[in-house]
Structures are given as structure tokens and as C-alpha cells.
Description:
By secondary structure, the chain is α+β, with helices and mostly antiparallel strands.
Amino acid sequence: MSVVVLEKEPDVGRHQSGHNSGVLHAGLYYRPGINEGQLAVDGIRQMVRFCRAQGVPHELCGKLVIAADASELPGLRDLMDRGSPEWPAGPGLASDPMSFERVEPHAAGAAAVRVPEEGIVSYPQVCSTLATLIRSLGGEILTSARVVEMKREESGWRLVTERGEIAAGFLVNCAGLHADRIARLAGERPSVQVVAVPWRILPASSRTTAPGATSHLPRCRMPPSRSWVCT
Ligand SMILES: Cc1cc2nc3c(=O)[nH]c(=O)nc-3n(C[C@H](O)[C@H](O)[C@H](O)COP(=O)(O)OP(=O)(O)OC[C@H]3O[C@@H](n4cnc5c(N)ncnc54)[C@H](O)[C@@H]3O)c2cc1C
């Protein structure tokens, strides 16, 4: 079987994976027992193993989840009570409230819990390492090859890209925030649509003032769809 990755940008990792917050998440905000939580726990363990094996820079520095003011303290308490039974080593992810100024002198708030299992990683290097591995195993990565049309054929698919056509027996749609568009190109009528919301990421220079990972307490609710809505 041959594997071809079609990438519309001139290189890999130009979208979310190369521009995210670089946090190794452990599924802190999921209710214990649901699949998403287990996936996150498995995911962080696999990612740390991958980084160690491949020499990708990462650090299990822990993360502080901060309640900005007194109104957020019940949410923080809830997070601590919830914990995570998926971690066999301890009763929960969140440790006791602490004087977090010692850990992050530049952070402010009413209280915080420290999540020792979480950390930070260079996701751009994760992407470039994955690309090297794919190529070394005989796979091909076609960059600047935006998929613009998908035709079903008897034996599989014919994809029209900006670099010509390519035949495939099997497709994996991993177009990130464009995944709904790709699904529609394939003739699917997905009931969900990706919607952009504003987000802010601190510039890399901020790392000198906040050396570890911090997070405010998300105001999240879980609607019946089981997707988190955070503000
Ligand atoms: C602001 C922000 C912060 C985040 N922080 C974290 C974090 O700290 N830790 C964490 O674990 N996760 C974080 N995430 C989530 C994480 O980054 C994403 O879940 C992950 O990167 C998604 O990877 P992906 O491969 O599905 O999508 P992407 O990385 O977006 O890759 C999709 C690829 O598809 C390509 N593509 C799209 N359309 C086409 C087309 N028509 N033809 C060819 N190629 C196409 C794009 O060019 C792109 O390279 C964050 C996300 C965001 C938005």
C-alpha cells in the first residue's frame, strides 16, 4: 500500500498544528469516564513516548489552572473534586489549591490548582518529525496540492489537486478546520459545520515571563451534543 499526504500549503504544520498553544493536555476538563477523557489520557502518554523516542523538545512542567476571582472558586473546587480515575497514580489530576505566585510570579488570580501531569511541547517539531517518518517509510507528502475536486470512481477516488490528479483507493480526511469542506467535496452532507471564533495566543517572547503552562478556568458547559462549549 502506498500512502500520499496531500497538503495545500507549501509545507506541513502551517495551520492549527503549527500554531496552537503547545500544551500537552491530559483531558482535565472532561467528565471522568467519557471517551474524550480516555482519549486525552492515552494521547498525552503516546505523545510523550513519541517525543522521547524521536527527540522532540517537550517538558512535563505541569500546568496551573487559575480562578481569576472569587466567583470562579466553586468551578475550581469542582475541577479538583472531579479528578480523573484514568490516572492510576493518584486520586485526581488536580492537586490542592496553592499559593501559585511561587510557581508563576507573573500570574494573578484568587487561587489555582496545579496539574503536574501536563506539559508543553513543540508541535511544529512534532509535525516535521512525522513528515520525516512518513517519507522514511516510503510515503509521499505532496505540498502545494490543494484538493479542489473529488470524483468517485469504480475502483475508488480521483482527486483533483492544484498539482494534478491523483487516484486513491481509500481516503482519510484530516483537513482540520477544513474537514467539513472536504467532506462536502466528497459528496457528504455533514450535519456539522466548522465556525471560527476569536482566540488569542501569547507571542513566544512571553515564555520568559511565564515559564510554565497556565490556563484560566474555562467557563464550560456540556450541552446534550456532548461537545464542550467554553467561553
Ligand atoms: C488556538 C488553538 C490552540 C490550541 N492549543 C492546543 C494545545 O495547546 N494543545 C493541543 O493538544 N491542541 C491544541 N489545539 C488543538 C490542536 O491544535 C488541533 O486539534 C490539531 O492541530 C488539529 O490537527 P489537524 O491535523 O486535524 O488539523 P490542522 O493542523 O489544521 O491540519 C489540517 C491540514 O489540512 C490542510 N488542508 C486543508 N484543506 C485542504 C485541502 N483542500 N487540500 C489539501 N490540504 C488541505 C491544511 O493546510 C492543514 O495543513 C489548539 C487549537 C487551536 C485552534
